[in-house]
Amino acid sequence: MWVMESSDRSGSTKAKHQRTRVDTSPAAPFRRRPALDVARGFVLVVAFATTTPSWDRALDALAGSQAQPMLAEQTAHAEWNGFHFIDWGFPAFVIMLAASMTLSRERHRMTGPSTWRFVSRVVTRGILLWIYAFFLYGGFSVPLTQIFSSRVFFLLSICIILTGLSLALLNLRGQIVAFILFLTANWAFMALLPVPGYGSGDFSVAGNALHYVENLLLDATGRATWQSSGVRQILQDFATILGLGVMAYGTCLAGLLQGQILISRYSIQGQVVILAICGIIATNLAVIWDIWFPINKHLWNASFTLLTGGLCYVVFAGIVQVIEVWRFPRLAYPFAVFGRYPLAAWTCYFCLPWENFAQRLFGRSFPPVFGVYQPLVINITQVALCWLLFAWWDKRRAHVERLRSRCQELERLPGLQVSEEPQAQVAQVPN
Prior knowledge:
Distance between the termini: 51 Å
Low-confidence stretches: 1-26
Largest sheet: none
Structural class: mainly alpha
C-alpha cells in the first residue's frame, strides 16, 4: 500500500517500527507493485525536465560553472557511438512497460481472457496507440513526413505488440532462450553482414548493416512510378521505425524477464538480490562487449540493449529496496503520481502550455532573486504545476476507490439488507 492508514493513533510508534523493518515475506504475484509506478514516474520526470526549451536556457545560464558541461553532455543524446544518461530513458520505460504487462497477464490468467483474446487486445491497443500518436503529433494539420519523424509513440506501439505476443506465446524458458538468441542474432547481423563498399563489421552511419537493409527495402518499394518525394520520405521514416522496433525487441524481452522475477516465489528481498546481480552482470558484459561491438542507441544494437537493461535492473532493484522492503512510500509518491498515469501525463505535459504558466509566476517581470538560476526555477516550476494537477486527480481517484471499497464491505455484511422499493416501504408507514 502507498499510504498506511490507521485510526489508532496510539499505535503510531509500533507502525513506524514496522514500516522500517526489512520485509522478507514472499511477494504476492497478483498484487500491484508500487515500485513499477515509481520507476515509470522517475523516467517521465527526467524526460519532462530535460526535453524542454527552458532546460536549454537553464544550461546556457549556467555557462562557466563546472557542472554545466557534464549536465549538457548527459542530457543530450549521443551523436553516434557511446552512451549518455538521457539515452537510458526510453529503454527503461519499455522495460517497465513489459514488466507491468507480465504482472497484469499473471493477475488475470485465471479469470481473464484466453491467450488469443489477450493477443487481440494487445494488438488492438498497439494500433490505437499508433492512431493516438498520429493525432498527437499533428494529425492532418501537418505534413506526414513531419509526423513520422517523431518516433517515440510509434516505436512504443510496436514494442507493445511485440511484448504482448511474446508474453502470450513464450514461457519463462522460452523468453530466456529468445533473449539470448536475439542478442546473438543482432550481433551477427550487424557484424557479419557484408555491406557493399564498406565490408562487414562497419558500424559507421553510412556503412552499418541496418542502414544497408533499410536502403534495400526502399529501393524495392521505390521503383513505383507513382511515388513522389514525400511518399518516399514517409516510406523511409516508416522503414526506420519498423527497423528500430525489431532492434528494440531485446529490450522488450528484458522487461518480460524482469516481470518474471517479480512474479516469482522468491521474497521481495530475494527479488532485489536477483535483480541487482543480473543487472551488474549485464552492465559489465555490455562494457566489455563495447570494445568489439560499440554501444549505439541509434542502431539499438545488442550491446546497447544489454547495457540499458542492466542499468534498469540495478536502478529498479534500488527502488524496490526502498519502497517495498524498507517501506518508505512517501519518498516515492512524487514519482508515483506520474507513473500511475504515464500516457496521460506525457500528453498533458507536452500539449498544455506549462511554461507559460510558470512564466506568470517567475517570468521576466519577477524580481531576479534567483539570478542565473531563474531559467532553472522556471523549468522546475512547469514540471511541478503539471504534477499538482495529477496529484489532485490521484487523490480524487483514491477517494472514490475507498468509497467503492467501503460500499462493497457494507454489502457483504450479513445483517444488512437494502430495500429495492424504498417508496413502497415509506407508503406503508402509518400516519
